[in-house]
Amino acid sequence: MDLQSAYQKAISFAANKHAGQTITGTPLPYLVHVCNVAMEILIASQHSLDFNVTSAVQVALLHDTIEDTNTSYEELSEAFGEDIAAGVLALTKNEELPKAEQMQDSLKRIKAHPKEVWAVKLADRITNLQKPPELWNASKKSSYLEEAVSIATYLEGGNPYLENRISKLIQSYKIYLL
Fold first, then answer.
1. Integer Cα distance of 30 and 45 in angstroms
2. pTM (predicted TM-score)
3. pLDDT tens by residue, 86-120
4. Is the dihedral of CA 126, 131, 134, 139 positive or negative?
5. Which InterPro entries is this protein grouped with (predicted)?
């Protein structure tokens, strides 16, 4: 499937699944976040060798469907294939684990996948390292930043372009801790 067709199919699916959801602390539709992650992937692909942009864009657009909607792994696999569904599942936190273990578990599962899945995780956190929601206290902001550092460290070597982007954003995010 060509990139444009793959994008259209995935964005339509994500739009239907995330309908009515908004980005935390804003009136913006959640689809804005999903599109921002895909945009990071599209730009990163221009700076990356041997990068399957079609697969990565689909995973980016669908990355929160299992975690944040009623989408099942089976439904995603049927619509987009096993590889895309498996990438999305790796990016999905296992809520049966204690909260403190969920990110590390997800990172381990992500690392078992192609580097395009690593890139989606980096792009997701890059997109989220903007001004934090007003309702977040200092502790939440600090732990979110620590988690970003952990993500960047664990996925080092996956995509130099996105690693550079997240490193810069980690530094600039520190103003929100003051």
1. 23
2. 0.96
3. 999 999 999 999 999 999 999 999 999 999 999 99
4. positive
5. MESH1 (IPR052194)
What is residue 33's three-state secondary structure? helix
If you ran DSSP here, which 8-state letter would residue 29 be given?
B
Nearest to residue 9, comparing CAs of 71, 62, 72, 69?
62
- 116-168 pLDDT, tens digit each: 999 999 999 999 999 999 889 999 999 999 999 999 999 999 999 999 999 99
What is the token pair recorded at 62?
């669908």
| Domain ranges across the chain | 3-177
* Cα(42)–Cα(48) distance, integer angstroms: 10
Closest of 106, 35, 20 to residue 70, by C-alpha? 20
Q: Which two tokens stand for residue 151?
A: 């993500």
Give the contacts of 151 (CB within 8 A, at least 6 positions apart). Answer: 103, 107, 121, 122, 125, 166
Whose tokens are 């130099």? That residue is 160
Alpha helices in 25-176 (DSSP H): 31-45, 53-62, 65-68, 73-80, 82-90, 99-111, 115-128, 138-154, 160-173
CATH 1.10.3210.10 is the classification of domain 3-177: yes
